[in-house]
Amino acid sequence: MDNDEAQKRHGVEPTYQQAKGFQPLQLTWGGLIIDAVFRGGSKHSNHGDTALKMVSPTVKFIRKH
């Protein structure tokens, strides 16, 4: 997501295409977005434990219900 011309750019970092923006990480199921996180542009999909924090509560919810 390109955010170069925005007036307020809190937390924005250059992406791999050198545009200042965000890296979205989305958890989808059956075409529906279950959870989404916007991270700084320099983060990739395996950065930190963001994916684990998204999937773990969802799996627990599915198993409970």
The number of distinct β-strands equals 3
> For the terminal residues, how far apart are their CA atoms?
35 Å
Helical percent range? 10-25%
Structural class: alpha+beta
Spatial arrangement of strands, main beta sheet: 1-2-3
User: Domains counted in the coordinates: how many?
Assistant: 1
Net shape = elongated
Strand content: 25-35%
Main sheet record = 3 strands, antiparallel
What's the gyration radius in Å?
14 Å
Output the number of helix runs: 1
Topology as H/E string? EEEH
Quick check: average pLDDT?
76
Uncertain residue ranges: none
Summarize the structure.
This protein is α+β, with helices and mostly antiparallel strands.
Describe the protein's topology:
Blueprint lengths: L12 E2 L5 E10 L2 E9 L9 H15 L1
Antiparallel strand pairs: 1-2, 2-3
Give an overview of the whole structure:
- This protein is α+β, with helices and mostly antiparallel strands and about 60 residues long.
- It has one domain.
- It contains 1 helix and 3 strands.
- A 3-stranded antiparallel β-sheet has the order 1-2-3, with helices on one face.
- The mean pLDDT is about 75.
Question: Which key phrases capture this entry?
Answer:
elongated; alpha+beta; 1 helix; 3-stranded antiparallel β-sheet; 65 residues; 3 strands
